[in-house]
Amino acid sequence: MRRFVRNRVLREVIAARHSGPDALLASFLGSAEKTEALEYWADKGCLELTRAWGGQIVSIALTSRGFTYFEDLRDERERFWRDRCVSFIGGFVAGVLTAVCSAVLIQRWL
Residue 28's CB: how many other CB atoms inside 10 A? Predict the structure, then answer.
Protein backbone atom coordinates (compact mmCIF):
# COMPACT_ATOMS: atom_id res chain seq x y z
CA MET A 1 0.00 0.00 0.00
CA ARG A 2 2.87 2.36 0.77
CA ARG A 3 4.35 1.95 -2.69
CA PHE A 4 0.95 2.70 -4.22
CA VAL A 5 0.64 5.90 -2.20
CA ARG A 6 4.22 6.93 -3.05
CA ASN A 7 3.70 6.33 -6.76
CA ARG A 8 0.38 8.16 -6.68
CA VAL A 9 2.00 11.16 -4.98
CA LEU A 10 4.78 11.35 -7.58
CA ARG A 11 2.23 11.03 -10.40
CA GLU A 12 0.23 13.88 -8.83
CA VAL A 13 3.35 16.05 -8.61
CA ILE A 14 4.17 15.34 -12.25
CA ALA A 15 0.59 16.11 -13.32
CA ALA A 16 0.37 19.29 -11.21
CA ARG A 17 3.72 20.79 -12.22
CA HIS A 18 1.95 23.41 -14.37
CA SER A 19 -0.66 24.45 -11.79
CA GLY A 20 1.78 26.44 -9.66
CA PRO A 21 3.72 25.76 -6.49
CA ASP A 22 1.12 27.07 -4.03
CA ALA A 23 -1.68 24.78 -5.19
CA LEU A 24 0.70 21.84 -5.27
CA LEU A 25 2.00 22.52 -1.78
CA ALA A 26 -1.46 22.99 -0.27
CA SER A 27 -2.73 19.69 -1.67
CA PHE A 28 0.16 17.65 -0.25
CA LEU A 29 0.76 19.05 3.21
CA GLY A 30 -2.60 18.04 4.67
CA SER A 31 -1.79 14.35 4.94
CA ALA A 32 1.00 12.64 6.87
CA GLU A 33 1.10 9.85 4.26
CA LYS A 34 1.67 12.33 1.46
CA THR A 35 4.32 14.21 3.42
CA GLU A 36 6.11 10.93 4.09
CA ALA A 37 5.91 10.06 0.39
CA LEU A 38 7.31 13.48 -0.55
CA GLU A 39 10.27 12.91 1.78
CA TYR A 40 10.79 9.45 0.28
CA TRP A 41 10.94 10.84 -3.27
CA ALA A 42 13.21 13.67 -2.12
CA ASP A 43 15.61 11.08 -0.65
CA LYS A 44 15.62 9.23 -3.99
CA GLY A 45 16.44 12.47 -5.83
CA CYS A 46 13.14 12.77 -7.71
CA LEU A 47 11.95 15.86 -5.84
CA GLU A 48 13.61 18.85 -4.23
CA LEU A 49 11.96 20.04 -1.03
CA THR A 50 12.67 23.46 0.42
CA ARG A 51 12.13 23.65 4.16
CA ALA A 52 11.62 26.50 6.62
CA TRP A 53 13.42 26.74 9.96
CA GLY A 54 10.96 24.45 11.72
CA GLY A 55 11.35 21.71 9.14
CA GLN A 56 8.06 22.55 7.44
CA ILE A 57 8.05 22.07 3.66
CA VAL A 58 7.86 25.43 1.88
CA SER A 59 8.13 24.37 -1.77
CA ILE A 60 8.27 21.27 -3.94
CA ALA A 61 10.29 21.09 -7.16
CA LEU A 62 10.32 18.18 -9.58
CA THR A 63 13.78 17.11 -10.79
CA SER A 64 14.53 15.65 -14.20
CA ARG A 65 14.96 12.23 -12.58
CA GLY A 66 11.49 12.52 -11.03
CA PHE A 67 9.98 13.63 -14.31
CA THR A 68 11.21 10.52 -16.13
CA TYR A 69 11.04 8.07 -13.19
CA PHE A 70 8.14 5.96 -14.46
CA GLU A 71 9.46 5.82 -18.03
CA ASP A 72 12.89 4.79 -16.73
CA LEU A 73 11.28 2.12 -14.56
CA ARG A 74 9.32 0.76 -17.51
CA ASP A 75 12.43 0.74 -19.71
CA GLU A 76 14.39 -1.05 -17.00
CA ARG A 77 11.73 -3.76 -16.69
CA GLU A 78 11.59 -4.22 -20.46
CA ARG A 79 15.38 -4.47 -20.64
CA PHE A 80 15.42 -6.98 -17.78
CA TRP A 81 12.91 -9.32 -19.45
CA ARG A 82 14.50 -8.90 -22.87
CA ASP A 83 17.89 -9.86 -21.43
CA ARG A 84 16.37 -12.87 -19.69
CA CYS A 85 14.74 -14.06 -22.92
CA VAL A 86 17.95 -13.57 -24.90
CA SER A 87 19.94 -15.45 -22.25
CA PHE A 88 17.44 -18.31 -22.26
CA ILE A 89 17.46 -18.58 -26.06
CA GLY A 90 21.26 -18.33 -26.11
CA GLY A 91 21.55 -21.12 -23.54
CA PHE A 92 19.08 -23.27 -25.45
CA VAL A 93 20.92 -22.76 -28.75
CA ALA A 94 24.27 -23.47 -27.09
CA GLY A 95 22.88 -26.72 -25.66
CA VAL A 96 21.50 -27.80 -29.03
CA LEU A 97 24.75 -26.96 -30.84
CA THR A 98 26.73 -28.86 -28.22
CA ALA A 99 24.52 -31.91 -28.63
CA VAL A 100 24.77 -31.77 -32.44
CA CYS A 101 28.56 -31.29 -32.40
CA SER A 102 29.05 -34.12 -29.93
CA ALA A 103 26.83 -36.43 -32.01
CA VAL A 104 28.80 -35.59 -35.17
CA LEU A 105 32.14 -36.12 -33.45
CA ILE A 106 31.04 -39.45 -31.96
CA GLN A 107 29.85 -40.73 -35.36
CA ARG A 108 33.11 -39.75 -37.07
CA TRP A 109 35.34 -41.30 -34.43
CA LEU A 110 33.45 -44.52 -34.01
Answer: 19
Which residues touch 63 (CB under 8 Å, ≥6 apart)? 45, 46, 47, 48
Query: Could you report how far apart the first and last alpha carbons of the chain are, in Å?
Result: 65
Please give the DSSP secondary-structure letter assigned to residue 19. Answer: S
Rounded to the nearest 10°, the torsion over CA 105, 107, 108, 109 is: 80
Distance (Å, whole) CA 78 – CA 102: 36
Q: What is the pLDDT along the chain (110 residues), one digit of tens a residue?
A: 577 778 888 888 887 776 666 666 666 666 778 888 888 888 888 888 887 787 777 778 888 888 888 899 999 999 999 999 999 999 999 999 999 999 998 888 87
Backbone torsion region of residue 59, taken as left when φ is above 0, otherwise alpha when ψ lies between -120 and 50, otherwise beta: beta
Q: 52, 54, 56: which is closest to 38 by C-alpha? A: 56
